[in-house]
Structures are given as structure tokens and as C-alpha cells.
Write the C-alpha cells for this entry.
Amino acid sequence: MIPLLPFAAGLIAGGLAVRLWRSEETQAGVKKAQDTLRSAAQSGLDTLRETGAAVRQRFAGGESPAAAAEVTAAAPKKKAAPRKRKPAADKAVAKAAAPAAPHKRARKATTETPA
């Protein structure tokens, strides 16, 4: 009898999962996520195509790869905006940065032996 309980629980959970999956609300959410993912992938591919075309155009002009690397290195790069820290994170960083107090260990009493 006991081995049938996990089987019955799994059967019920599976049935509920199928009913939830078939609901219109879930399908709408899945479709929205799929569309978002598709548009992000398309945007990435478009950017890659534009970059590839720019590189091909640069090299087609007779410019050597070393000169192109110098031009790329000389181009100013945007500095990322600093992130705002949360107050709790600042406290944790301060605790981690604080030096630890030295641990003093009690010495054993020594007995002197006569020579």
C-alpha cells in the first residue's frame, strides 16, 4: 500500500501540471517570453552583422591589421557608470576590511629543571 502513495501523488501532480500548462494564461506568458528572447537574439545578430561589415570595410581599404588595431586601441572607451551601493553592503564590506584582532593563546606554565 505504501509504494502506491508516491505513485498516486506523482500522478496527481502530473495531471495538475498538464492542466496548468494548457491554460491560456500560461501559454500567453510562454509566448511573451519567446517573443522577447527572439527579439534579443535578432538584435544581437544585427549588431554582429554591422560589426562584421565595419571590419570588412576597414580591411578592404588596404589597411593592415596592425594599423586597424592601433585605431581601435586609440578610440576612447566609455567608462561604466558606478553602481550605487546598498547601505547593508557597505557595512559588510567595512566588516570584511577591518583587521582581525590578534588571538592570544594562553601559555603553558613551564617548570624549570635543575641542571
Remarks:
- The mean pLDDT is 78.
- The longest helix spans residues 24-60.
